Amino acid sequence: MSVVNTSRLIDKEVINVRDGSRLGTVCDVSVDCCDGKIKHIIVPAIKGIFSFFGKKKEYCIDWCNVVKIGSDIVLVDTDNEKCLRICEE
To answer: What is the pLDDT of residues 30-39, one digit of tens each?
Structure first.
């Protein structure tokens, strides 16, 4: 993958090509401080009706699972359940 500005990733919609599901929009990225490479993109999990009282969750998607970055969308190939985690607050 070519050079990507992290600021251009924020607010792009993320679609999983495995099942066509919409995961949400990129809100953050994690970067390896040693080599300066992106490690993960962070996407808040879409909330359901009953998740108001539950813990917030997010998708932490490995950079190697990013398939394609378009002008307004990011395609990923990942297992939704394996990359879902509870947010650290």
So the answer is: 999 999 889 9
The CATH architecture to which 6-86 belongs is Roll (2.30)
Mapping DSSP to helix (H, G, I), strand (E, B) and coil, where does residue 2 land?
coil
Do residues 41 and 75 lie in contact, with contact meaning Cβ atoms separated by under 8 Å? no
Tell me the CA distances in angstroms from 65 to 6, 45, 54, one per residue in order.
16, 17, 28
pTM of the predicted protein model: 0.84
Nearest to 76 by CA among 30, 31, 9: 9
Beta bridge partners of 60: 42
Nearest to 80 by CA among 62, 59, 65, 64: 59
Query: How many Å apart are CA 77 and CA 23, to the nearest integer?
Result: 11
State how beta strands 13-16 and 73-76 pair. Answer: parallel
In the chain, domain spans: 6-86
